[in-house]
Specification:
Number of helices: 6
Strand content: 35-45%
Distance between the termini: 34 Å
Organism: Streptomyces indicus
CATH architecture: 2-Layer Sandwich
Pfam families: DUF4937
Number of strands: 8
Largest sheet: 8 strands, antiparallel, barrel
Number of domains: 1
Radius of gyration: 17 Å
Protein name: DUF4937 domain-containing protein
Helix content: 25-40%
InterPro entries: Dimeric_a/b-barrel, DUF4937
CATH topology: Alpha-Beta Plaits
Domain DUF4937: 12-96
Amino acid sequence: MPRRAPYYGAVLVKWMRCTVTDRRGFEQGQRRWAGLLGEPGFRGQGGGWSTRRGDVVHLFAFWESRSFYDSFMARSHDRLASAQAGTYTDLRVKLFDYRFDVKTGFEPRFTDADLVRIAHCRVREESMDHFALMQQKVWNPAMAGSPGMVRGLFAEAPGSEVLVLSMWQSEAEHGKYRVERVERLSLRAQTEKDLIGLDGDIVKLLPQWTV
């Protein structure tokens, strides 16, 4: 696999998604997560509502290391999470290790983006090297060259799972990129040969959820 320069600002990426049953209660409880600011190793959190399913929320949190994250989960998590008890169902949490930037200079910031595109990839084990190389050689330059793309990252989890997050200035800018380039790039990168499955979403970021 290509050598990747480590990003020491956030090496652990936490992706959370759930189906909200009490929108008002959930949004009120979300304010409690401002308490993350005092946690050692915490680097940032943001999220919002799915643009495809009105009751689905996606949240992204960034930590300097797994040990900092585990310490937070053991000490403070349940207290902060209690404010949202009973407001959602079908919570799914995945942890990924940061591998490399999509564009350059990734930071766990959400204040200058309006949209996050999620690509959750299940990759054939024998194809991981090729998949990562094509991300660096084909997909990254294309996204980095799109005027509305702000920043992004490529992260991995055990079992040959990959999370590609890209932040965009607007839905319109992301739409231009998709219409013009995705099919051609997918053929060039031979993406279908590498993948077992692919799912994703587009998330409208809410500034008040940014920590």
